[in-house]
Design brief:
558 residues, 2 domains, six-stranded parallel β-sheet, two-stranded antiparallel sheet, 20 helices, 13% strand, disordered N terminus, T6SS Phospholipase effector Tle1-like catalytic domain-containing protein, AB_hydrolase_fold, Tle1-like_cat
């Protein structure tokens, strides 16, 4: 639906060696550079607030409730996550928008702030998950009015908490305001995944609660487990028809054992007809730069085949109940869905892979003042998804500009981003090489949105178009925590469930073994990568180490 597929690969432009003053002037009107009109025309006055809709002339007066849940140990500090950066863009004091932010698991409990040993225990075992779910549920309960749009955002375990919250709303509904005494009962019915628990959840919902839908869920790199001992709550991973739009930015380079990506839902490729698996749509392709690394990965796997299978068999025999609980829960979830009286359209799902590790996608890997970082790419992408899906969220114009978004591409009419036809200008390339760009926080002043309080003079050449921001951000270093914080290797020697593709069929199976830094499995038949991934391949020789489905055909999107 929303993201634009690339019909041609990115081409690196070779600029002439003459100076810019002697260079011929190109016809800039024919190029898709998205220059802000405030610098070129001076006739368009930007509003202080922009509503996230595709056409501002059709913007309604809907009321929006926004819940933002941060990742493990994340809170407002000098290396903010994308959840904090997203909240910073929101209008806070408006009657049509109420925002709730929650710091990550391990930062507080029912008694207040946590630190020291108690915080470490909470972060390792995820003991505060229920508290975080119930607190967010309480916010909705006290503020929801019929017709409100509910939008949920999260990163890491906060993403998982968001999906649990959506699952709780679907399973037990939303209690009326001021019924706080019933919240614990509602949560207990939600997490009870026995046959009796599912039956009582239906009765509780019918007796006490309202049936509400979640309009939009946006998550950065949702992880599949919460805590050292993994738990799965109802509808935390499986799809429900009570979510309108689901958007997920995923990290290609994360490979820690306890950070397995949690997709929205997947069909086993073995269950898909063979003609559907092998069909080739011309819009879907495996980029040239990826084919070589993909073949190397296959050869490497073949070389370790015998050793790996021997170890896997031992682990499977040690854990004979592997997968049984998941099958039972999926069956109960399916029966619950069938018993629901309402019929809603299926969830609009878009999951896209980005360069970097966990915190390179969700933010928090580097200090806030770094000029070019990988995390801003998925931040801008998520904000754009809010516009494409007509969430109606109110953003501060100056804050959107600070993220690097071209304001005139989202207002007054939203324009889908396209892959650039040319590379950055020679001047911009030279400035990038010497670190000559002003802080991105001064971008609103460059665009004429707010006054510049800094003393140094700015010029129009200091303003980078959004696509150029993406280009340079894509070249930023990847923060691999297994290299930066060696203590993470302790968990690599603990047996965990890993997905591998069957040799005899196209299906995937779970085995229990040591992770040892293995990269994530990409099980989609048509996985989507952001265009900046391919750009990094071309510019820096980036190699993808993920375990990709052998029939996968990549689609490059914006």
């Amino acid at each position: 639906m929303s993201s634009t597929a690339a019909s041609r690969p990115w081409t690196k432009v070779l600029y002439p060696s003459q100076s810019c003053s002697n260079a011929p002037t190109p016809d800039m009107s024919s190029l898709n550079l998205n220059w802000p009109q405030s610098l070129t025309s001076g006739t368009t006055k930007l509003p202080p607030l922009i509503q996230a809709v595709q056409d501002s002339s059709n913007a309604g007066k809907t009321r929006t409730l926004i819940i933002c849940l941060d990742g493990t140990g994340d809170q407002f500090d000098d290396d903010n996550s994308n959840v904090v950066n997203f909240v910073a863009c929101l209008k806070k004091d408006d009657p049509n928008q109420i925002t709730y932010y929650q710091s990550g698991i391990g930062t507080y409990n029912e008694h207040g702030l946590k630190n020291g040993i108690s915080a470490a225990i909470d972060m390792s075992v995820g003991s505060g998950l229920g508290i975080h779910i119930k607190d967010a549920y309480r916010f909705l309960m006290q503020n929801y009015r019929e017709g409100d749009k509910i939008c949920l955002f999260g990163f890491s375990r906060g993403s998982y908490t968001v999906r649990c919250l959506a699952g709780m709303l679907h399973k037990v509904g939303l209690l009326p305001a001021h019924n706080s005494a019933q919240i614990n009962f509602a949560y207990n019915f939600y997490k009870n995944d026995s046959a009796e628990g599912w039956k009582m959840s239906r009765e509780f919902k019918k007796t006490f609660c309202a049936d509400v839908n979640v309009y939009f869920v946006g998550v950065w790199d949702c992880v599949a487990s919460v805590g050292f001992i993994p738990r799965k709550l109802p509808f935390s991973k499986s799809p429900t028809n009570s979510i309108g739009f689901f958007r997920h930015a995923m990290a290609l380079d994360e490979h820690r054992s306890k950070f397995k990506v949690c997709h929205f839902a997947h069909s086993d490729p073995a269950s898909i007809p063979s003609n559907a698996r092998t069909s080739r749509n011309r819009r879907y392709y495996f980029p040239k730069a990826l084919r070589k690394s993909h073949r190397k990965l296959e050869k490497k796997d073949d070389g370790n085949k015998e050793k790996s299978n021997t170890f896997t068999m031992k682990r499977v025999l040690t854990f004979p109940q592997l997968g049984k609980e998941e099958i039972d829960q999926e069956k109960l979830e399916a029966e619950f869905e069938k018993s629901c009286q309402k019929s809603s359209p299926p969830t609009d799902v878009l999951e896209v892979w980005f360069c970097g590790g966990h915190a390179d996608v969700g933010g928090g890997a580097v200090k806030n003042w770094e000029r070019h970082v990988l995390a801003r790419i998925p931040l801008r992408w998520m904000i754009r998804q809010c516009f494409e899906c007509n969430t109606g969220i109110l953003f501060k114009t100056s804050s959107l500009a600070e993220t690097g978004i071209d304001i005139h591409s989202v207002w007054p009419v939203y324009k889908e981003q396209e892959r650039p036809r040319v590379g950055p200008s020679p001047d911009h390339m030279n400035k990038y090489a010497v670190g000559g760009f002003p802080p991105i926080q001064r971008r609103p002043a460059l665009m004429g949105i707010e006054l510049d309080e800094e003393g140094t003079k700015l010029s129009p050449d200091d303003l980078l178009p959004e696509q150029t921001e993406d280009y340079f951000d894509a070249l930023a270093p990847i923060n691999d925590q297994l290299k930066l914080a060696r203590m993470w290797w302790l968990l690599e020697f603990w047996p965990v469930k890993i997905r591998i593709q069957n040799e005899a069929s196209d299906g995937w199976k779970k085995v229990v073994r040591l992770n040892l830094g293995s990269h994530r499995a990409v099980r989609e038949l048509e996985p989507k990568m952001h265009w900046t991934v391919e750009q990094r391949i071309i510019e820096k020789g980036y190699k993808m180490h993920s375990n990709v489905d052998r029939n996968a055909i990549w689609k490059v999107v914006c």
